[in-house]
Amino acid sequence: MTARQTIRAIGLVALLAGAAAAVADDPPANVPPDAPAVAPQPDKLDLPFDDAHKSAQNAPTEGEMTAKLDAGITRGLAWLAKKQSTDGSFGDDRWGRSVAITSLGAIAFMADGNLPGRGPYGENVEKALKHVLENCTESGLVAGDTAAAPMYGHGFATLFLCEVYGMTGGGPDAAAAAKLHNAVLRAVRLIVSTQNDEGGWRYNPVPNDADVSVTICQIMALRAARNAGLEVPKQTIDRAVDYIRRCQNDDGGFKYQLTAGPSAWPRSAAGIASLYYAGIYDDPQINKGLKYLAVNAMPRQDRTSPHYFYGHYYAAQAMYLAGGENWSAWWPAIREELLVAQQQDGSWQDPAVGDVYGTAMALIVLQMPKRYLPIFQK
Asked: Where exactly are the structural domains of the chain?
């Protein structure tokens, strides 16, 4: 059996095993027939920001976009487009044709307003979409043949597919729209069915263990799915929120797993963003986390982390969703730091994962003020 077939089999077993529990909660027991009806609690994912909390979505900071930023983005997108393979994939010699990097590359183009068949880079998005759909398995897992930790790629790919589906409805071609819809449904069901007993996810599509990093990938994918109109079980989100909360240390940062461990700013940024995407907006744990980031992750402090782009991808989202002074202080700092780090050819170097990945992540961060992507709009 090939590695791809093994991944498919594992994912299918997990999907079938968890489907019944994932789709619906058990009915309440021992409720008297004459008991008064209890109004259902709103799903966290449906709760809007209240009047006391305004993200940067509707409260932009002054001077978010500059001529220097526009020029940097233009150069970065042009460089990235040249790195796309003829089959639509993005990657490099280290990771090959990665669905994760392909999805992030496509999201970078979508952050500029490009969609399949629309915009100067619409063809790039369309080719990336085709490649990702070709890597959707029958179990719902989205993974390439070389995926070593497939749930990472699955989370990013599902986010990409849901963003395309939510923004286009699948497009005018009925067959293509149906293919995208079915792929999104299966991908989301796989995430729901492989959540482990702690409430999180890890590298493989089996509910054995969990870590913060993989869990946030799945939470973002589920958030995008809900934004696109797909059903996501409330129980899945509640359990994920509980897992993330229990991973926070007393200093406001987040440990890698539930076992004792130190805080680190990249995963702490991911933890805070995941709470926002799970529908938690004003909360003491978020406030502690934001203070931790302000002390430990403010741009210009740590450019040596092997998870630099990963960390600022989530930190920018956390600050954008926090809004107010958090965003107004963070945005100019990360904007300038990234523009200074941009290479003459338009790329951003990432020695840990690769320049295509680093460039895609930098472009997603730098284009957040354009407010095109639905995932950043609530």
From this structure: 247-331
